[in-house]
Amino acid sequence: MSAPRTVRCAAFAAAVGAVLLLGSGPARAADGAVGTRETVCAQDLFVRTEPVGAWMGTLYKGQTFLVESKQSGWAYGFAYGNINRRGWVQDGWFC
């Protein structure tokens, strides 16, 4: 009777270890801070003319965006990289 209990305990310990290992991965994306040049964590982040507006370019992971103001889940500022102009991006995709 002790063998099945030992197997269950070992399986439980392995599951807990896997959860802890997965939880210690890379930092998650965060909101931008006004006045800060943030690094994009998303694979790609659309730059728009206004919140939910027309697409004007794409920032890619590792490129930067200077947050100048924020409004309802959106950040306005200067998109560096291949865009090099001001626009709006969805907030919450910065490292």
Please write out the topology.
Elements: H1 2-23, E1 37-39, E2 44-48, E3 55-60, E4 64-71, E5 74-79, E6 85-90
Antiparallel strand pairs: 1-4, 2-3, 4-5, 5-6
What does this structure look like?
The protein is α+β, with helices and mostly antiparallel strands and 95 residues long. It has a domain at 37-90: SH3 type barrels (Roll). It is 23% helix and 36% strand. The protein is built from one helix and six strands; from the N terminus they run αββββββ. It has one helix at 2-23, and strands spanning 37-39, 44-48, 55-60, 64-71, 74-79, 85-90. The strands form two sheets. It has a four-stranded antiparallel beta sheet with strand order 1-4-5-6, with no helix packed on it. Strands 2-3 form a two-stranded antiparallel ribbon. A hairpin with a 5-residue loop joins strand 5 (74-79) and strand 6 (85-90). The radius of gyration is 21 Å and the shape is globular. Mean pLDDT is 81; it is low at 6-26.
User: What characteristic shape results from the CA principal axes?
Assistant: globular
Total count of strands: 6
Mean pLDDT over the residues: 81
Number of DSSP helical runs: 1
Summarize the helix and strand pattern as letters: HEEEEEE
Give the second-level CATH assignment, the architecture of the domain at 37-90. Roll
Percent helix among the residues? 10-25%
End-to-end CA span: 51 Å
Strand arrangement in the largest pleated sheet: 1-4-5-6
How much of the sequence lies in strands comes to: 35-45%
CATH topology of the domain at 37-90: SH3 type barrels
Q: What is the rounded Rg?
A: 21 Å
Biggest sheet architecture: 4 strands, antiparallel
What low-confidence regions span 5 or more consecutive residues with pLDDT below 50? 6-26
Structural class category = alpha+beta
Q: Give the CATH class of the domain at 37-90.
A: Mainly Beta
